[in-house]
Amino acid sequence: MIKTTPGTDALRDQFDTIIFDMDGVLLDITESIRVVNCLAVPMYLREVLHWPAPDNLVTTEDIEAFKHAGGFNDDIELTRAIVLHYVNKEHEHPGADPDTLNVFRPTLIDFARKIGERGGGLQNAENICLEKHNYDNRAQVLLDYRTREIGQIFEELFAGEHTQELYGYESKFYKGPGYVNKDKPIIDIAKLPAGKKYGVLTGRTPAEAKLGLKMSGLLEIVPESNLMTPKGGPRKPDPRGLRKLVEEMGAQRTLYIGDTLDDYRTVERYQRKYADLPVSAALVLTGPAGVRNKKIFERSGAEIAGADVNEILDWLSGTPAVEETDTNE
Q1: Same domain, 207 and 175
Q2: From start to end of 193-311, where are the E strands?
Q3: For 240-257, how does the pLDDT look when each residue is reduced to its tens digit (9 = 90+)?
Q4: pTM, to two decimals
């Protein structure tokens, strides 16, 4: 059931523009990107550093902790932060295998919490890991923290046979089928209300985003001019990419539909900075954490919280049951 903040229902007919996040909103990525989030770290440790790292070293709960910390809309940056965590801990506990490193404090959950306390993102993760080292020790850690190879392993796992198409190079570390093939469409395009403008704001590259639009059935509905990736604007939760897209689409009142707290933070920062072209936030529970985010989303301040994007589209059409959120809870 949709939950809205007071006064939101009165705005329903005023939304002329709908902007979607992609992963977890238009596409179910629980068997694709979220699996790659977990597999890329041990593959890097095995293939590049030659450590005996098992595939189950990192869990989906670990990944979700980093998402809640904020600043990790880029899944490659998230992967780099986790790799650095293991590299840093191994330098503190020389010779310990990755499973043993998981036992020593700080755990990945502890690390994510510390990052969140500093404002989130890879830069803060790097600062936490490196600031206590002297010059020589920092240099030794950085020798094992090879950001280009980390990103390449993530991309190859995700793309597989599409690596050349998406990234312009041949796979080196992974030769199997791409996990992108396990993306599943969530959105029912038959539910899109008529007379609206549609756009997408995503952390994917332009090539990844176009493939996602094709898989979700929106390739002919969302023109390239209405697609905003980090190539065209800053990453979420920086609101300038959203602002640029709103302006380019000629929107008067926009609803942005996302599935993470960074999506909400993007709109929250937009609302604080820009008042002339209003944007409201809707959050859905189809991201990898699913219903575990329900209470977090309802308390976030987002104007709308729903089960999935189709429930939000039904709400826009005036068809579903709606429960108004008590803002005093």
Answers
A1: no
A2: 197-201, 227-228, 254-258, 279-284, 304-306
A3: 999 999 999 999 999 999
A4: 0.89
